[in-house]
Every structure is written in structure tokens, then in C-alpha cells.
Amino acid sequence: MDNRSSKGNMTGSRGFTLLETVIALAITAVVTVFAIGFIRPQIGLYNEFDQLSQAKAMCAEAYVKLEKVLRYGYVYHADPDRPDELAYYIRKTEPYESVHESDGSVYEMLPPMDKWPRIAAGDLEVEEMDGMTLELDFGGTTSREVRALLVVKKEEEQVYEQEVVIRSMYDYEIEGDDVVGW
């Protein structure tokens, strides 16, 4: 019995012709190339934005911890030779260890700066994410306000930076524009 009919050669056959197989494979290859061409950049963008999000989270955590420590700061000092470290003095409650009276006002005499507490990036214990590290630069700090540049790096390449300002809660007067070491 003959399986051929008037509709075509392959009616009743159980497979594909070589031409149909080659066309299906070619279409699959083209679709795969387009899919990979679309998905690969999307994955790259996702990884980039994920890393940026993690870096911002590290900066936010660092700011909260810095602000918690420095909000009661009375005087701040950043050594130009060590801008990654900040010396700060927390105002004491009475009785003062040493006082100075002038025009009816009582002033606290500050201890030598080398006895002040210091803070650096390592002291903040910020969670490192995806191999990124946090660096601080207190270069713009004055006696009344902390200006810190928070920099997140991965393998020595800068991922994100944020500048923060923390001001002293206390209103006081100091001779000159800035406190220079005592």
C-alpha cells in the first residue's frame, strides 16, 4: 500500500525532513543568540545595581554608627597627616575635672588631644558586603562639625562615595576659627 496522497509527500510519515530539522535548528540558534544578547547585559546591570545598593547600605550603616558616637561631641579634630581618623572630645557632666572662670562663666579645660578618643573606619564595624571595604576621610572637619567622606571600594576601585556632616549639639565659643592641638 502506498502512503502517498495528493496533499504532499510526507503525509503519514513519522518524522521530519532534513530541511525541516535544519530550519528548526537555525531558528533555535538565532533565538538563543538574541536571548543571550538581551539577558547578559541585564544580568550585568542587575549586578551593578546590586553592588551599588550594598555600597549605599554600608554608607548608611556607617553614618548611623558615626552619628551615634559623635552627636554628643564637644570638639572635633582631624589630623591632616591622618585624615582617616578623627579625634573627638565628649563633654563631661559636672563636676568638671579642671575649670576656668571668666566673666562669671565657667569653662571646662580640655585635656590634651592625645588623650581624646579616636574613631576610624575599623572602629565602626560596618558589615562588609561582597568584598567591599569602607574608608573614611575626615579632611574637611572643623572644631564644631565633622565632615566625613565615606568611600566604599572593591578591589581598590571606588564603587560609591557619600559626604556626611555631623554638627556639635553644643553652642560654645573658641578663640580663632578652629581648634588646633592642645
Polypeptide structure, described:
The protein has helices at residues 18-70, 121-124; strands spanning 73-78, 85-90, 99-102, 105-108, 118-120, 132-137, 145-154, 157-167. With 182 residues, the protein is an alpha+beta fold. The protein has one domain (31-167). The longest helix is centred in the N-terminal third of the chain and has 53 residues, at 18-70. Mean pLDDT is 83; it is low at 176-182.
Q: What structural class do the secondary elements suggest?
A: alpha+beta
| Series of secondary-structure elements, N-terminal to C-terminal | HEEEEEHEEE
Estimate nothing, just give the exact number of structural domains: 1
How is the biggest beta sheet arranged?
3 strands, antiparallel
What proportion of the residues form beta strands (DSSP E)? Answer: 25-35%
Annotate the secondary structure layout:
Elements: H1 18-70, E1 73-78, E2 85-90, E3 99-102, E4 105-108, E5 118-120, H2 121-124, E6 132-137, E7 145-154, E8 157-167
Antiparallel strand pairs: 1-2, 2-5, 3-4, 6-7, 7-8
Throw out a few tags for this protein.
182 residues; three-stranded antiparallel sheet; disordered C terminus; alpha+beta
Summarize the structure in short.
The protein has 182 residues and is an alpha+beta fold.
